[in-house]
Amino acid sequence: MRKPKLRELGEAIKALVKGPYTTKFPKKPAEIYKEFKGFPEYQEDECVRCGGCARVCPTGAIEIRDNLEEGKRVMFRDYGKCIVCGQCALYCLTEKGIEMTNNWDLTTLDRSEIHEEVEDELVFCENCGAVITTKRHMEWIIDRLGELAFANPTLLMYSHYKLGLADKDSGKNHPGFWREDHMRVLCPNCRRHLMYKEDWEG
After folding, report:
1. pLDDT at position 18, please?
2. What SS3 class is residue 179?
3. How many angstroms separate the CA atoms of 141 and 81, rounded?
4. Residue ranges making up the domain that contains 146
5. CATH number, domain with residue 101
6. In 52, 99, 105, 112, which residue has its Cα 20 to 30 A from 127's Cα atom?
7. Domain contains 180
8. What are the tens digits of pLDDT across the range 56-66?
9. Residue 147 dihedral angles phi and psi, to the nearest 5°
């Protein structure tokens, strides 16, 4: 039978020569596997600010904040609420707007360091003023559809505005819906009312 004191002495000598068995975290970064899932991260150039990630986040860590006065949408992420479930990355519309990282250590005394924001300009309905989406989202849809986007009046007019081929303020000062209103940037609700009036009221 081995004597306990001799065994402990041997382990102490090994620790002096080879170093301790425990990791040196937090003095040195921990070594993690490439596949280890850490916190998600916005990819600002790929995110279209559609708000899909905020709708699937189970803890409300992602919020959509529309500033109507400034005409901007801010996508706000609070890592303090994030449970690293990966739903935002899984259901990202572009599949590139949010990526899972290996960064799991966000310990800090300053809560502003665990907040992240990206913003974009809003696109409003030309009839009722409701928010349709963001400019980046609209442009992403047009690019993805290609020539099929010309079948949608809203996408067609938005692309014409961007190219300078149409005037937003031309002939729009009239009450109700007229036939020419088909060629306007409208929200789904106003588009439905316009089609109803065209088909049933004449």
Report:
1. 78
2. helix
3. 31
4. 125-168+176-202
5. 3.30.70.3270
6. 52
7. yes
8. 999 999 999 99
9. -70, -20
